[in-house]
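Tokens for chain A. Residues wanted.
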């Protein structure tokens, strides 16, 4: 069904044929700079055939993005969004948000209560989108969660991730008021450029953010949101 105005010619479709599956795998490989294992077609086909969320984002008849999510344990009424990507050149047009809203509606229709996913804590634009725009809540800090990753985005770095949970029927989690904030963890404004131009500095940021984040959690504080200037905001539970 159409997911945007006719002028943009954007819509989101379930991937039902093996040709569509291979095209989506190629799209995600482009997003992650060539990694063959980003989302193998065989796995994507199996997830789609067993009733999970496997969709393509189309501009006209050209696929420009894809998203894959799978159901969690039955009692949890949850879905985990494993991967969502939009091809380079179209990543600042709100298409990621369009995919997330479609995913939310799809999950609601199947009585799913919340969606989880992970993101790199050093990528400020993702923290802004996930925490400030969508209003998801941080649930875990995961150290080197995926191990070594051989793609152009993550190669040479440890794969620390933040897990978030998006409660689909609840209002977005607000950014904590200043009087509630007792600590913060800063992140670089553009870690992608830093990884390319100053990899030693990027690695130092990884260790610094990990140690500060885990240290504050160990003190009993809660990561309550994100601020574009201060970084992650911690509050008392």
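Reply:
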């Amino acid at each position: 069904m159409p997911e945007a105005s006719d002028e943009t010619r954007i819509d989101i479709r379930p991937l039902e044929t093996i040709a569509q599956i291979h095209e989506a795998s190629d799209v995600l490989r482009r997003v992650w700079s060539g990694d063959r294992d980003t989302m193998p077609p065989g796995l994507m086909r199996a997830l789609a055939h067993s009733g999970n969320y496997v969709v393509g984002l189309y501009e006209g008849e050209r696929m420009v993005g894809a998203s894959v999510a799978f159901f969690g344990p039955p009692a949890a009424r949850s879905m985990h969004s494993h991967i969502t990507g939009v091809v380079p050149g179209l990543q600042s047009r709100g298409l990621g948000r369009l995919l997330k809203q479609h995913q939310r509606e799809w999950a609601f229709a199947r009585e799913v209560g919340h969606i989880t996913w992970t993101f790199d804590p050093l990528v400020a634009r993702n923290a802004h989108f996930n925490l400030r725009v969508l209003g998801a809540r941080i649930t875990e800090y995961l150290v080197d969660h995926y191990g070594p990753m051989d793609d152009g985005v993550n190669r040479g770095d440890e794969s620390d991730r933040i897990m978030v949970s998006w409660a689909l029927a609840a209002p977005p989690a607000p950014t904590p008021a200043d009087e509630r904030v007792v600590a913060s963890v800063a992140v670089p404004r553009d870690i992608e450029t830093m990884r390319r131009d100053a990899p030693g500095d990027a690695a130092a940021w990884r260790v610094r953010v990990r140690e500060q984040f885990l240290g504050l959690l160990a003190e009993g504080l809660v990561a309550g949101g994100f601020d574009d200037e201060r970084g992650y905001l911690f509050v008392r539970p």
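The helical segments are 18-31, 41-49, 95-108, 124-133, 191-197, 199-218. The chain is about 30% helix and 30% strand.
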